[in-house]
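Long-time lurker. I teach an intro course on protein structure, and each term I like to show students one example going from raw sequence to a predicted 3D structure in token notation. This year I'd like something fresh instead of my usual example. Would anyone be willing to generate the tokens for the chain below so I can use it in lecture? Attribution to the forum is fine with me.
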Amino acid sequence: MGFGLAVAFGLALGVAIGAAPLLYRALGPLLIGFNAIPKVALVPILVMWFGIGTVPAIITAFLISFFPIAVNVAAGIATLEPELQDVLRSLGARKRDILWKVGLPRALPYFFASLKVAISLAFVGSVISETVASNNGIGHLMLVASSSFRTPLLFAGLVVIAVLGIIMYAGAALMERRLAHWATRGTDGGLHGGG
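-- Reply from a regular --
Happy to contribute to a lecture. Here you go:
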């Protein structure tokens, strides 16, 4: 859930700040400053506000994976060549048309690159939160296993996290091949997700 929220809000904010240079300059430093805060330091605050459970884990996963999506989408849109924009305007395109028909497709490779990073970060965030302040989840299971010296269970938790990460990464790579196949280079489908 945290990752899904990060995708939705990160994409929306990335489009907004990438399309508006003033907003880009105003919110850029705030995003960088917020990202510099260790998210594990926010978990006790989230527990005080929302109690022990899944809500702090969802919010932590959101907070830790939101930044790369927003920044990369904004960069993809903001780096649209001024010459191309001038040509499109001379052909009668409005700013909204340029954003939807050129800016967003151009930002797709940036978006999918950030998705692949954000997936692993979302797992890190949720497991950290579940370890610190939860009565369930993989992080809590691993904490209980380590305190009772059940090493196989601890490794099983790590394997589950790795498998879930691989599945979600593969899903993002598949979406990239379907939606932005024109931007991928001929690779074997490894870390770049191309094909």
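Some talking points for your students: The two ends are 29 Å apart (CA to CA). The mean pLDDT is 79.
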